[in-house]
Design a protein that fits this description.
mainly alpha, 69% helix, 0% strand
């Protein structure tokens, strides 16, 4: 929770945005769920005055229903305001809105364009890079291109984004855009699983259990990964 009364409003908004970009998203959600009406009005006023951080946060608040009723149209409105100022998180989230048809008619091409804007910035959004990979792999808004999917997954995976690491592993496991390489697939699955996602941990455990990507089955190693799921 915010506790430093010496923070300026812009510093406060910047801090909140930083929480949306890392593993502390639950902390951010908690802050907004407990936000006073007075503080919410202050943030909305700042958003109306053009602050892209405030615009993004208000958009996220309506997107997830944090202290307010979910309103996708309002969320889309504020994400768009922030995205047009070049804010990468808003650009990525706006792409998700178009991809899922939230607050707007589904438009995969528009979604792709917003993901691309977020992914191509100097301070690129790793989630957007992964999302572009998904678009190329699935043929959403673009022609299916497994090699381009791999290139975008790798950009994100090399920066430590677990979803991209897992997706890259799947390309290697099933030979999409590359020769089948179960060992390489397992290596990427392990990187993703080490970040705590139970689904990825289950995948690694299954690989060891049935002997994929390893010399032979290893039930003990599989059990270690399955136990991690229980402990999470």
């Amino acid at each position: 929770m915010l506790s430093d009364n010496n923070l300026t409003l812009k510093e406060e908004l910047s801090y909140l945005v930083s929480l949306s970009s890392n593993i502390k998203t639950n902390e951010l959600n908690s802050i907004f769920l407990n936000l006073s009406e007075e503080k919410r009005i202050i943030y909305e006023k700042e958003a109306e005055n053009g602050d892209m951080n405030a615009q993004f946060l208000i958009g996220r608040m309506y997107d997830l229903g944090l202290g307010v009723t979910v309103d996708y149209q309002k969320s889309l409105y504020w994400y768009l305001k922030s995205a047009k100022q070049g804010f990468v998180n808003a650009q990525n989230n706006l792409g998700v809105m178009y991809r899922n048809g939230k607050g707007v008619e589904r438009d995969d091409r528009e979604a792709f364009n917003w993901f691309l804007q977020a992914a191509n910035q100097s301070h690129a959004n790793v989630v957007a890079q992964n999302n572009i990979g998904v678009m190329y792999q699935s043929g959403f808004g673009v022609l299916v291109d497994y090699q381009k999917a791999m290139d975008w997954y790798r950009k994100s995976a090399d920066q430590g984004y677990a979803e991209a690491q897992y997706n890259l592993g799947r390309l290697y496991e099933y030979g999409l855009g590359v020769q089948v390489n179960k060992k390489e697939a397992l290596d990427w699955y392990i990187k993703a699983a080490n970040q705590g996602n139970v689904n990825f941990q289950y995948k690694v455990g299954t690989m060891y259990l049935i002997g994929l990507g390893v010399i032979e089955k290893d039930e003990n190693e599989a059990l270690k990964w399955f136990m991690k799921i229980i402990q999470e």
